[in-house]
Amino acid sequence: MLRSCTAGLRSIWALRGRREGAPRLSMDLQPARRLFSTEKVIHKDWALPNPSWSKDLKLLFDQFMKKCEDGSWERLPSYKRRSTQESEDFKTYFLGSALQTQSLWKKAQLFTRGFEDGLGFEYVIFKNNDEKRTVCLFQGGPYLQGVPGLLHGGAMATMIDIALGSCTGGAVMTANLNINFKRPVPLCSVVVINSQLDKLEGRKLFLSCNVRSVDEKTLYSEATGLFIKLDPEKSST
Amino acid sequence: MLRSCTAGLRSIWALRGRREGAPRLSMDLQPARRLFSTEKVIHKDWALPNPSWSKDLKLLFDQFMKKCEDGSWERLPSYKRRSTQESEDFKTYFLGSALQTQSLWKKAQLFTRGFEDGLGFEYVIFKNNDEKRTVCLFQGGPYLQGVPGLLHGGAMATMIDIALGSCTGGAVMTANLNINFKRPVPLCSVVVINSQLDKLEGRKLFLSCNVRSVDEKTLYSEATGLFIKLDPEKSST
User: Fewer beta carbons within 10 angstroms: which end of chain A, N or C?
Assistant: First the structure.
């Protein structure tokens, strides 16, 4: 079991783990495709514009898509689920003999892609591999409310976790998140999360980010993160 | 506008802000009630068992309900929305003249109550006022997945934010969250978040919590939080 798990993680490692819930690498803009003949799920890429996106979000998306043309930036696709094999590899790695087969698990999907269009997390991440940094464009919908009229701090923390993780370029786990909330984010507004890899020490990755308004005048949050690279030679159990 | 806002926040203050999305104080177990004749929404209390709750969660719930009988503990109800007036007060306080009236806002609801029963955040918080601490019983559903088979770090951060906030006893905003993720949480399992108020300095509240398995043997996370009491005499804009 460990050997197959290790092989699976090596495969995940090779994919550089940079696409959330990603079944396979894909740089095209096809909204959906079928991966394996045994899979019934058609994987839709959710990091593309939909009618709920505001003018600000669409405009920024177009600007970054232009930056992708010379290859310096790339858009990271985003899926609700990983492929079945990858999912099993991860479960075995983390849960080992304690692996459960609850029926609820069959419904499992990525946290940030669980809401209908426009109601929850609308976002896309662009990555600059040479500069080891990413830019996440995020519009938090009405189902992400905390104090009335404002984005929930937990929703912001979630996007910060994802944005920092997108800089890691590998299969990783979050070990520490330290977030300073400077100003509350109005619900349904667009923010820009700039993340970067600051330092690499063995399997430890030290990252930081800031969250700003589209015009960059308002600093909403600053955060640091410590992520640990998973060791494909070892199970965590 | 400021005066009415101030009056509104005083009222919120008086309610001690301890119930998420709470329209008014309520200690009974009525699942739903109508507050104002002008309101069309019937406020359902979501911090009560539903068929998706696991045996572990129900058992812990029953244990804490027993502790409530002598008044040392209380169950905190939880609603998707605050009353219309409170919502308007908050929006005015935070957003002032920049208050927007986007149609999406009409759908606004508490982040952690946006999923169908069992798919997202299933939780209930019990509070011990004398000891300035709370216990949050949390079952993270299949729509909160991060790495396959595991709870998303952002979902855990969200619950930590809410659990710490439940100790504050006032209208507050999160200023800092510092979370150490020790071990990943299996999806659909139940965890217990013990939170406490460590120190109060003026408007600053310093809090801490830990997240453990039901049998207390596994420490999943530890966190500290700094929350700031809102000043009802001032608008934030």
Answer: N
